[in-house]
Amino acid sequence: MIEFLKGKVVLIDVDSIVIDVHNVGYLVYCPNPYHFEGNLHQEITIYTYQHVREDSIKLFGFSQREERWLFEKLLQVSGIGPKGALAILATGEPDMVIHAIENEDELFLVKFPGVGKKTARQIILDLKGKLTDIITSKGNGSSFGNITQEKSSTSLHNLELKEALEALKALGYVDREINKVIPQLQEEKLTTDGYIRRALQLMLK
What we know:
five-stranded mixed beta barrel
């Protein structure tokens, strides 16, 4: 298994990034690729998980080992695949997910795409009491999505909002869910990552 990759981010897509490691481009699927938009053409370290199936081999990447560990735990739950696990981690707040599991908060879990009541109950049954070793580190510098540069162009923000909406669809959210939060998103001027995070916050309320 590849523990991590260290290289330059050369491309950001709705569900993945390409990282150049010594002139080899690795396609890495991420919970929220736009989390790395502030690091385009910069060197990062991303912790990886290699998922092998009969018909495909994919790399999944995370900014923290703890996120990867939770991803691996979610994959052990019946009914949760890589795409579903990525959608659950896309908020960038693994502690919220752990808190919901430990408190048997099914209403929170079913808000993620592809998670119904049966799957939410299975997540709780399989993982409750097994996630206490995860240490989430907010604000410790391990997150690559901090953007401080102000962008005032309306057209630029429209583009970033469009990218955010496409990323939400890639995570499995349907138009009905996305359309509910668009009016509130249009009132704000955020980065693509910011729009994604804000949309997820609104949909998880």
